[in-house]
Design goal:
The termini are far apart. The chain is globular and about 100 Å long. It is an alpha+beta fold. Guanosine-5'-diphosphate (GDP) binds next to helix 1. Guanosine-5'-diphosphate binds near residues 18, 132 and 239.
Length: about 675
């Protein structure tokens, strides 16, 4: 068993193509965890082991690897870099102490670089920047460093410098002088030490007095403090291809990357996620076990594999554990450490270690595992994922496959927090949603190749909503006499608008038992039926409070069905009088496209009832501009093909949910008219 002091956990994050998977491979090879580095092109890397990843040539999911180096255990989490696959990449941030942001020296700071710098800071992680591909032709390393500092701040400081025609690097903490590219070693050395000693007053005082550099050991604590506080974001240079800088990076991970007690882990909560009572896990092997599941793999042979980080205590083979709320327990059985697709059995895992258990079907993504009854209902600070909006309606081509499609889609949902499956309650529509077109295409490919499910796809219906703009009251009496028994129930209620996003509130304000308490759930059921089915346009009604304040009952004829019917009809009546309107989903869109197509794209967005909220002229990638805007979801159906034709195939985009907004009156009229026709036909 390793002790926490000798454990490092690092997520390799950054834009697609930056060389994260290749760099993980180079680190593993240099540390001796594998005999030779494989290559992404040949499909022989540890981290891109999936068939689909090998074919597409880039990572689609996160992957784990580990290495032993000078008595230190390194855990690496390789993550996918394209925005479409950011679900697993964000999830990895919950499992590590260090985010290693890999930047491609050829293309510079890209979309995912910026996002990961932001997301990992928000998570409190220690950040380090690695500039990869320094071997490539026509790279402007000095310009890139300036750009990094302009975007992310002066605390981004050189920890090493490329030297000898970029064939090697010189570490500037250890060396006070030397020949290097970009900047003089002496300047970089001075700047770095100045920044580190700032963290510790006594160190600073001595440094100023004696005018002599503190030793590396003396600076260690201050260095970690600077990392944690975000006062220092070291920049290093490597070439995963030639190996330049790889040994130096390995040494930095060993000696300077935080161990679990030097990191800045997010808090846990007792009770509601994100609210509740906050507390911090202590990376002490002797305490109660707390582990957080950041990845689920539905493995065809192993069953459901849950991959977690141990935050506190020691997870042991055969231990009895609880899931989240503490009501369900399971025996750990086999415990594994992962090396790409290989599972190695281990007896125990200490705080800071990443491991896996298999065949516990109750465990879900984001669950907290613990070994104590009292520690019930624990959550880790919630991760923030973009809400998937890009949708496709899917149908099996072969009849009889429907049930299996449903099961398989559920598996895909488990492993990717940004992929969801919706069953449209009205129509018989199954809609898959993801972060972009490429995301959904990857899932369809997977369904076809791995599960032999061929699907027909179509544009899904738009998830409109209804809401009300003022309060209103209504009474409805349901009375029926059929044969001997009758049905009687009368409900009076009030509907009031709530803030956008508030959902639904039901209030029972009935006095004196005019509606007996046992029938209140029936009234609520009727109210919900009316809201779910929609009133003016057949869309679910949201952001309303419904208060039942009066009614009547009959000693013999009052029945549940009567109050369900009365609740439903009273709600419909009240909503019709409450200034009901239709809301439509608006999405944030981010387009990256060649500079010369910006005019056309802006015009196209306007034509789609959208507008531009900002453009970033691109040093990010030479000749590319980023356009941010807002657009109704209803208008992006064919955006992919339009973008392709306007940019000669060079543009890409992502969307995420922004908000619901009232629909323009003319479009709302249309929707309501078609709902009327439908209602009359039924
Ligand atoms: N010239 C050069 N190419 C590299 C280097 N590292 C990775 N590559 C190439 O860049 C491409 C993307 O690499 P990959 O590791 O898949 O990037 P990822 O998407 O960040 O995981 C592949 O073709 C690699 O061979 C490097 O240091 N130098
Ligand atoms: Mg990769």
């Amino acid at each position: 068993m390793s002790t926490p002091e000798f454990i490092r956990s690092i997520a390799l994050v950054g834009h697609g193509g930056a060389g994260k998977t290749s760099l993980a491979e180079a680190l593993l090879a240099r540390a001796g965890a594998i005999t030779a580095a494989g290559s992404v092109e040949k499909g022989t890397t540890v981290c891109d082991f999936d068939t689909q990843e090998k074919l597409s040539g880039h990572s689609l999911n996160s992957a784990l690897a580990n290495a032993d180096w000078n008595g230190v255990k390194l855990y690496l989490v390789d993550t996918p870099g394209y925005p479409d696959f950011s679900g697993p990449a964000i999830a990895a941030l919950a499992a590590v102490d260090t985010a290693l942001v890999v930047i491609n020296a050829q293309t510079g700071v890209e979309l995912t670089t910026e996002r990961m710098m932001r997301w990992s800071a928000a998570r409190g992680l220690c950040r380090m920047i690695v500039i990869n591909k320094i071997d490539a032709d026509n790279v402007d390393l000095s310009g890139l460093v300036n750009d990094i500092r302009a975007r992310f701040g002066k605390q981004c400081m050189l920890l090493d410098l490329p030297a000898h025609d970029r064939k090697e690097v010189i570490e500037v903490l250890e060396h006070a002088e030397g020949d290097a590219d970009i900047e003089s070693v002496a300047t970089a050395h001075r700047a770095l030490i100045d920044q580190i000693v700032e963290e510790d007053e006594s160190l600073l005082a001595r440094y100023l007095e004696e005018g002599e550099d503190p030793t590396l050991a003396e600076m260690h604590a201050a260095f970690e403090q600077a990392l944690r506080a975000g006062h220092l974001v070291p920049i290093m240079f490597v070439s995963a291809r030639t190996g330049a800088g790889v040994s130096e990076l390995l040494r930095v991970l060993e000696t300077l990357a935080p161990n679990p007690s030097e990191g800045n882990p997010p808090p846990f909560y007792k009770g509601e996620a994100g609210s509740g009572e906050a507390f911090h896990a202590v990376p002490d092997p002797k305490k109660h076990v707390l582990a957080h599941v950041f990845k689920i793999v539905p493995d065809p042979y192993m069953g459901r594999v849950s991959i977690f980080r141990v935050h506190q205590g020691t997870m042991k083979k055969d231990m009895q554990m609880f899931i989240g709320s503490g009501r369900r327990s399971f025996k750990v059985g086999h415990l594994y450490r992962l090396q790409g697709k290989e599972y190695a059995e281990v007896d125990s895992l200490a705080p800071g270690e990443l491991g896996a258990i298999a065949k516990v079907e109750d465990i879900e993504f984001d669950a907290v595992l613990h070994d104590s009854h009292d520690e019930d209902n624990i959550h880790l600070k919630p991760l923030e994922f973009p809400k998937p909006m890009q949708g496709l309606a899917v149908e099996t081509k072969k009849r009889g496959d429907e049930q299996r499609l449903f099961e398989v889609l559920h598996k895909l949902e488990l492993e990717d927090p940004c992929f969801v499956v919706e069953r449209n309650p009205g129509g018989n529509e199954t809609v898959i949603r993801g972060l972009g077109e490429m995301h959904l295409r990857a899932k369809l490919e997977r369904l076809a190749t791995q599960y032999k499910l061929e699907l027909a796809t179509s544009q899904p219906s738009i998830p409109y909503r209804e809401t009300i703009t003022k309060s209103s009251e209504a009474t409805y009496r349901h009375k029926k006499q059929s044969g001997g028994a009758g049905q009687f129930g009368e409900v009076a209620l009030r509907v009031e608008p709530l803030a956008r996003g508030a959902g639904f509130e039901f209030v029972d304000a009935v006095k004196g038992g005019v509606i007996p308490g046992v029938f209140i759930p029936a009234v609520e059921k009727g109210v919900r039926q009316a809201l779910d089915a929609g009133v003016i346009a057949g869309q679910p009604v949201e952001d309303v409070r419904v208060t039942v304040f009066d009614g009547k009952h009959h000693a013999v004829d009052s029945k549940e069905v009567a109050f369900v019917a009365a609740g439903k009809k009273a709600t419909m009546k009240a909503i019709r009088e409450a200034g009901a309107i239709v809301l439509e989903p608006i999405v944030n869109i981010e387009v990256t496209a060649p500079d010369e197509s910006v005019g056309d794209l802006t015009g196209d967005l306007l034509g789609r009832r959208g507008h531009v909220t900002g453009t970033g002229q691109g040093t990010r990638s030479q000749g590319m501009t980023q356009i941010n805007g807002e657009i109704p979801l209803a208008e992006i159906g064919d955006y992919q093909s339009k973008l392709k034709s306007l940019t000669g195939g060079q543009g890409s985009y992502t969307v995420e949910f922004a908000r619901y907004a009232p629909m323009p009156a003319n479009l709302q009229q249309k929707l309501m008219a078609s709902f009327k026709v439908q209602e009359e036909e039924d």
